Amino acid sequence: MTVVQKFGKYLLVFLKYFSLVFFSFVAILPIVSCVITAFKTDTEYQQTNVMVMPESWLNFSNFTQAFTKANMGRAFVNSAIILVCVLVVSVLVGTQLAYVLNRFKFPGNNLIRNLFLFATLLPGVAMQVAVYEIMYNLHFINSLVGYIIMMCGTDVISIYIYIQFFENIDISLDESAIVDGASYFTIFYKILLPLLKPAIVTSCILKGVGTYNEYYSANLYLQDKKLLPTVATSLYTFVGPLGSKYNLICAGVIISLLPALIVFITCQKQIYSGLTAGAVKG
Asked: Which residues pair with 58 in a beta bridge?
């Protein structure tokens, strides 16, 4: 191996690890600055930059103020109700729809799949005028039930994940169950649905993160911020025309991250298995 070849080899290794360290630093930097800012008083935040350490790491007044003034207790309850309802309905509707599209061949099957694919290409913001008019006519504005129904809309990505898993499940299971006298509902709920656990975990992660962090729709349709706040909209309590209290906002951000962090730590084995199982076709 020549000197040039050795130099090129070591250069590629250096660039690989340098890029990993650099992008990791870029990803972690906002979180670090958010944690530092959350412990600063108003005076410290105004007189120092975001990377200067606070005088005391035992200053939890920002967290208590953020939790009480932003009404985060009610926001967590509302977000939990929305998240549970949306995930349950999305899983039931998505798995059944994928079951029909995969197991039953009928005229228009491919058309429906193509329409779902076409729907993913349409930006959600472009359809908000029509959606808002529908929500207004159905009196779903400022209604938690109406917002949940809207968020339970068909999740196309999850449907394709379920279809992918159904294609990997041998159809002989269905045929054997039919021979034994099982109905289609029995086959789906007692045989196929338990086998979809990895796909359900994957889709719940994707749908759950999007629902928990949703701000645009929550702010648009849940206009009563005192009775119907969510975790995402409650953080904007400290944003105003006269300035923003970013130390309280950062404290609220950390509080809002805690439930997701707890779920990830306790369920990381299931999350990893779901993601890896959905990544390959076998």
From this structure: none
| Token pair listed for 196 | 């979809």
Q: Is 239 helix (H, G, I), strand (E, B) or coil?
A: strand
Other Cβ atoms closer than 10 A to 158: 23
Report in angstroms the alpha-carbon separations of 281 from 171, 188, 200: 16, 21, 16
The yes-or-no verdict on residue 12 having pLDDT over 50 is: yes
How high is the pLDDT of residue 22? 92
Lowest mean pLDDT among 1-5, 82-86, 98-102, 117-121: 1-5
> 146 near 82, Cβ under 8 Å?
no
Distance CA 78, CA 255 (A): 15
5 burial (CB, 10 Å; 0-12 / 13-18 / 19+) is: exposed
**Cα-flanking dihedrals φ and ψ of residue 239, to 5°?**
-110, 125
- Identity of residue 54: P
Give the whole-angstrom CA distance, residue 38 versus residue 253.
Answer: 9
Residue 24 structure tokens: 């990791």
Token readout for 219 is: 């702010």
Question: Torsions phi, psi of 214, nearest 5?
Answer: -65, 125
Phi, psi of 243 (to 5 degrees): 130, 165
pTM of this prediction? 0.82
With beta carbons less than 8 A apart as the criterion, state whether 202 and 272 touch.
no
